[in-house]
Each structure stands twice: as C-alpha cells, then as structure tokens.
Amino acid sequence: MDLTLIVVLVIALALFFDFTNGFHDTANAMATPIATGAMKPKVAVGLAAILNLVGAFLSTAVALTISGGIIKEGSGGVLITPELIFAGLIGAIVWNMATWLFGLPSSSSHALFGGLIGAAVVGAWSLDPVDWIVLLDKVIIPALLAPVIAGFIAYTATKLAYAITRRYDSRPDGRDGFRYGQIFSSSLVALAHGTNDAQKTMGIITLTLISAGIQTDASVVQPWVIISCGLAIALGTYMGGWRIIKTLGTGLTDVKPAQGFAAETSTAATILASSHLGFALSTTQVASGSVIGSGLGRRGSTVRWATAGRIGVGWVLTLPSAAIVGGIAAALTKLGTIGIIIDAAAGVVVIVGIFWQSRRSGEVTASNVTSEVAASGEAVKIKRNPKPKKKVSL
Questions:
Q1: Is residue 265 within 8 Å of residue 128, measured between CB atoms?
Q2: Residue 382: which H helix or E strand, with range?
Q3: Fewer CB within 10 A of the terminal residue: the chain, N end or C end?
Q4: Is residue 250 within 8 Å of 218, Cβ to Cβ?
C-alpha cells in the first residue's frame, strides 16, 4: 500500500480513537455532577468538551512518553511502521467500543498501550521491542499508585468537608453549597482529562510521522497534531458517552455533593500532577479511586468491595485483551495490502455491529441517563442519615 495512503489512514484511525476516548471517559468528570443535579446533562458534557479542548494545549509531556518511550526501535527492538500502529489502534478501538456497549468504565489509555504492545510484539515475533522499564515506570506503577493516592486525598478532603460543615440542631449545615462547588471541581477534571488523554493520540500520530520519515524529531509535537487531537476528543466528549455516565453516575445518586466535590478535586489534582511528570494515567482508575475514597470518608457509607473488585478485574483485562486484538491485526498486516483491507473491513463490521447492538439493547441518551441504577456504579453505597431533631424548649 502507498505510504502516504497508509499514513493518512492511520491518522484518521487515531483521531477516531481519540473520539471514542472522549465519549468513553466523559463520565470521569461529569457523572457525579449530573447525578447530584449540579448541572444538566447536556450542559455538563458541553462544558467538558470545551475544557477537554483547552486542556489539549496545556502540555505535551505524555505525548512524548508515548512517541519516544514504550516501544523500542532499531537494534534490539522493532521497525515501527504505520501498519503496526494501525494494528495497535484497531486493538484499542475494538476494546473501547466493546466496553462502551456494556457501560464498563475501563481505561482507554491501557487499551491503547495494549494494542500497541501486541502489534509490536507480533511485528517482531519477540518481546524485545517493548521497553518494559518505561512501561513499568510510566504506566504500570502510576496505575497502581494513582488510584490509591487519589482515594486518600478524597478521603481526607471528605472528612474535612464534613467537619467544616458539621450539622447542628436547628441550623442548616450549608452542604448544598458543595453542589455549586462541583461545577468548578468537575470542570477541573475535564480540563485535566484533556491535558492527559488527548496527548496519547498526539503521541501516536507523532510516532506515525516519525516511522514514515515525515518527521525526525521525537521531542516535538506539531501544532496541527495538537489542534486535531483536541478537536477530536472534544467532539467525542460532547457526544456524551451516556452509557458509561449511566453506569458511574446513576449508581452514585446517593453520593452527596460534598463527596462529589472532594472526589472530583482529588481526581483533577492527581491527573494534572501526572501530566506534568509525563505519567500516562487512566482517568477512569483515578476517578474510581477518588469515589471510593470519598465513600470511606463519609460516616454511614460502606464500600462494596466485591463490586469494586469486579471493576478492578476489568482494568486488569484491558491491556492484555487489547494486546491480543492488536497482535491479530498486526499478523494480518504481514499479508500486505490485502491484510490491511481485511483489518479495516473487520474493524468497520465490529464498530457497526456494536452500534447496532446498542440500539437493540436500549438507547441511552441525556433524557434517560439517570433513570436507573447500574450495578457497577454501586461501588459506594450510602446509608441515609436521620434528619436532625430540633431541640424542644421547656
């Protein structure tokens, strides 16, 4: 296949992945404020889309980690070609679409890494192309630590919020004010999401340009790449990803505004710090850790560890599952043009099939996103406290 044509195809596929990333991960920022009534659904995703776009321009550290870090080239590595990147993107998109269908809050980031790793390993028929030290240092360890750190911050912030607004008889506690604070905190999460997640696609496109000989400097992300990736993730965010918002948001309707504010603030702080350091975190995992931490921080709440464990299993399966699909797609690219055509056709069939199945299983929109409680959103269950009793004067 003509080099220019495959490069264009890979860039288009990368932007489509960026689009799926947007609607897949919108819930991380906006599920809780939608559930608490802080913002209306369409207003929330519209604001998130704008802030995702702005966030894409704030940093390129994560993009450079992807474009020049995880996959080794040359001696002891693999010759990265646009075909292999194409195969890796197929693996990431298929997993993103499958988890979207089931409303599963999985990691788009790990799906991307898994797809690329699977394609690189099959491309070289060896494990050598993967820089396991970079993967461990920049992806695996942050993935393990970030949810715990975010959860601890959310736990502490929730305790502090409830201590400051301690309820007394005959006096309002003022906690409804946190609902307005959620507008700010959820906006900060959306900004952080754009800062971290849009860069991953920037890194993929930059890697494609380098592998095709169009760009030589791996330390530079071209302006048109930043703009196009920012627009793609913003458009995906505006589409809403209502299925995953329903999973996370409607299962958290009993989470109080103070908890939502604490969880969102800790999520944003963790992601922005990681973006500055070049860590490619999963916003889904960080947000989930924050929600659990805020649940532990509120008296009367209990964490359903069995449900949290099932969500954790989904996270563990993401990278290897995407790697398997990416590896199969990479094996087909070895057939040449016909293999790429088969990959593209199979990808289109899977995507169309998933959309068709989503219509059959019931469409989720802004109008019904909060109508039911999804099982995987019940990681935190809140017991209602009795209303305070008024003192009786004698």
A1: no
A2: strand 380-382
A3: C
A4: no
Lowest mean pLDDT among 163-172, 212-221, 308-317: 163-172
Q: Give the E-state strand segments of 92-198 in sequence order.
A: none
List the one residue out of 289, 292, 319, 306 whose CA is nearest residue 92.
319
Q: Are 44 and 186 in contact (CB under 8 A)?
A: yes
Using CA atoms in the order 210, 214, 217, 222, what is the torsion angle rounded to 10 degrees?
-100
**Residue 352, C-beta contacts closer than 8 angstroms, at least 6 positions apart:** none
Say which residue the tokens 């307005």 belong to. 180
Contact of 120 with 134, CB cutoff 8 Å:
no
| Beta strand segments in 163-300, E | none
pTM recorded for the entire structure: 0.77
- 122-125: long-range contacts (C-beta < 8 A, 24 or more apart)? 122/87, 122/326, 122/327, 122/328, 122/330, 122/331, 123/78, 123/79, 123/81, 123/84, 123/87, 123/330, 124/77, 124/78
- Residues with Cβ < 8 Å from 264, sequence gap 6 or more? 29, 32, 33, 182, 185, 186, 188, 189, 290
DSSP string, 179-220: HHHHHHHHHHHHHHHHHHHHHHHHHHHHHHHHHTTS---TT-
Average pLDDT of the chain? 77
Q: Residue 85 is encoded by which pair of tokens?
A: 């990147």
List the helix and strand counts (H, then E) for the chain.
Answer: 14, 2
**pLDDT, average across residues 321-329:** 93
pLDDT score, position 374 = 35
CA distance 225 to 205: 7
Tokens at residue 316, please?
A: 């563990």
Tens of pLDDT, residues 333-362? 888 889 889 999 998 999 899 888 877 766
pLDDT, tens digit (0-9, with 9 covering 90-100), for 71-125? 776 665 567 788 888 999 999 999 988 888 877 777 887 888 889 899 989 988 8
pLDDT single digits (tens) 152-185: 988 888 888 887 776 544 454 456 677 778 888 8
Label the pairing between strands 301-303 and 380-382.
Answer: antiparallel
List Cβ neighbours of 68 (8 Å cut-off, separation of 6 or more).
207, 218, 219
Distance separating alpha carbons of residues 22 and 5, to the nearest angstrom: 26
Closest CA to 158 of 262, 252, 256: 262
- Token code pair at residue 56: 């894409």
